[in-house]
Amino acid sequence: MLRLQDIRKYFPVRGGVLMKVIGEIKAVDGVSMDIGKGETFGLVGETGSGKTTLGRVVLKLIEPTSGRIFFDGRDITELRGKELLPLRREMQIVFQDPYKALHPKKKVKDIVGEPLIIHEGLRGKEVEERVSEMLKLVGLNPEHMHRYPHEFSGGQRQRIVIARALILRPKFIVLDEPTSALDVSVQAKILNLLSDLKEKFGLTYLLISHNLAVVRHFSNRVGVMYLGKLVEVAPTEELFENPRHPYTIGLISSIPVPDPKLVKSRRKLLLLGEIPSPMNPPSGCRFHTRCPYAKEVCRTEEPKIEEISEGHYVACHLWRELS
Ligand code: SF4
């Protein structure tokens, strides 16, 4: 469904009186990966790892600095402006914050129905019929179409956001922290809804989240990002049961467990310090400033990502020694 080849996204940083370019933020720095049809690919990492930027590049909401994007067999890298319209039908996004994602002065029918007017030229009753059908599918009452966003709870608003994303029957959806702005009590309901809709419509998801429990529950495969790079990719259970990159081990160690005896054998690593600035990423392995196993080679040479077992990829010089 999706193939990324060596994607980079650098943002210029301006400063001084003349606001000249004084550097660049390497938000995404050489990411390659595939997502198969019907798959849910989870992308995890701390704030500043580049996962949200990558999600926006995939959808062409922002242009990559370099690299190529293939969607459903087509190279979409060079598409611009109106050429992107057909793609907007097929690729959608569900943003993190349903409070910001909905126009406060528009009724639900106008919010959810707008893509039908733009892409299918529908009007009046035709739009209302499709909106009504979609609201039912996301667990809302069709009568809700005549109300405004402020009349709904957070969970209901996220259902409206999902209805809008699905109204054109897309194939691929980026879920950008879809539940993190919601109360814990409604998070599971929204995740179950997304899971049901995936089955019903044969969707493919890219799930961006810092919540490892959500990613574990919901994804087929997981990619771990650190400072703009993918450091580990594996099928979900393999990644959580047998993490090989020290950063992944650190992330997984930070998940609270109800009974520590159950995970006695699992290796632990405390992640110290903050993620460094992507403007001046560390040389060699970018994780070396926080890695307790770092050796000289880690400071000077960047580790390549390599397949260590079927479908399990790691970028670490010492993965053999640490196994
Ligand atoms: Fe740690 Fe070195 Fe592996 Fe980087 S390459 S994760 S610094 S051991």
Q: What report would you give on this structure?
A:
A hairpin with a 2-residue loop joins strand 11 and strand 12. With 323 residues, the protein is α/β, with parallel strands linked by helices. 33% of the residues lie in helices and 24% in strands. The chain has a domain of 80 residues. The strands form two sheets. It has an eight-stranded mixed sheet, sandwiched between helices. A four-stranded antiparallel sheet has the order 2-1-4-5. It starts with a strand and ends with a helix. Bound molecules: iron/sulfur cluster. The site of iron/sulfur cluster has 13 residues, from loops.
Short description:
The protein has a domain at 243-322.
Helix share, percent: 25-40%
Q: What is the alpha-carbon Rg in Å? A: 21 Å
Distance between the termini: 33 Å
Average pLDDT taken over every residue:
92
Q: How do the strands line up in the largest sheet?
A: 6-7-8-3-9-10-12-11
- Ligand types: iron/sulfur cluster
Shape: globular
**Topology, number of strands:** 12
Features of the shown structure:
323 residues, alpha/beta, 8-stranded mixed β-sheet, 4-stranded antiparallel β-sheet, 12 helices, binds iron/sulfur cluster
Topology:
Layout: E1 2-15, E2 20-35, E3 40-44, H1 51-58, E4 66-71, E5 74-75, H2 85-90, E6 91-94, H3 98-101, H4 108-120, H5 124-137, H6 154-166, E7 172-176, H7 184-201, E8 204-208, H8 212-218, E9 221-226, E10 229-235, H9 236-241, H10 246-253, H11 296-300, E11 306-309, E12 312-314, H12 319-322
Parallel strand pairs: 3-8, 3-9, 6-7, 7-8
Antiparallel strand pairs: 1-2, 1-4, 4-5, 9-10, 10-12, 11-12
The structure holds iron/sulfur cluster (SF4).
Iron/sulfur cluster binds at residues 245-246, 285, 287-288, 291, 293-294, 298, 303, 316-318.
Family: Belongs to the ABC transporter superfamily.
Domain ABC transporter: 2-252
GO molecular function: ATP binding; ATP hydrolysis activity; transmembrane transporter activity
